[in-house]
Amino acid sequence: MGTPHSIRPSSVSRPARKAERGGESFAESREFEWLARAGLAARGVVYGIVGVLAIKLALGDGGNATNQQGALRTIAGGTFGKVLLIVLAVGLAGYAIWRLVRAALGHGPEASDDTKDRIAGVVSGIVYAGLCVTAVQIIAGAGGGERSGHPDDTAAGVLGWTGGTYLVAAAGVAFIGVAIDQAIKGVKRKFLEDSKTEQMSEGVERGFTVLGVTGYLARAVVFSMIGYFLIKAAIDYDPHKAVGVDGALAKLGQASYGPWLLGIVAAGLLAFGLYSFADARYRRV
What we know:
Blueprint: H1 9-27, H2 30-58, H3 68-76, H4 81-105, H5 115-140, H6 151-159, H7 164-187, H8 202-236, H9 245-254, H10 258-282
Helix pairs in contact: 1-4, 2-3, 2-4, 2-10, 3-4, 3-5, 4-5, 6-7, 7-8, 8-9, 8-10, 9-10
């Protein structure tokens, strides 16, 4: 008996090939490039606000340690906040789409990704898609509360699962791995490999490099602290010890020489925000 036409491999693979061609066409389009660059600029806004608020906290000027979601709420509370948040939500969506499409195809119109880059793209795309959803919830007045997705709430839920302790510890190890990767990118200036340095003047390249090195090292500090406290939460079976970006910054502020340490890392996060704006111009997407 012959194979039914409906399940022949050639007919089954045809939709997949069509979808792949569609993805390739989109990745080569000007719209895809626009989404990527708008997304990088949106990332710059978020990190810039986190950094500025943390600097004000370090200076005792009424700031606070906040995370990316807190930065979105800060924008919403300002003049023309909803309008700005709508624009930012579009940018965050663009960043998520850019990272996920690049992860799926392994390349964009100007650069290609290895396996590690594609995995990082999936994680980053999901995170920024979540930020976009948070922005939309804040715009609609339907969510985005102060403790929305707070790390200790998440850790509390996971610790209650079978094997949850190991999952939380594994998440901590993963964050430390990301921190090491960020530090390597900063120290070895590997981020320049993704940038159009040939289009920069000597002064622009120098400033771009300083912002990138400082920003990546600051992120390495924050991610390593998040990883450390996740592991500690798993070992002590205490979800309240898990922290996010805001918690990591607050811990820095409470340490010996806290205001100085917090100020340095906060300045680094602001530098990463400024680097992201420049990256929107010079990134090989």
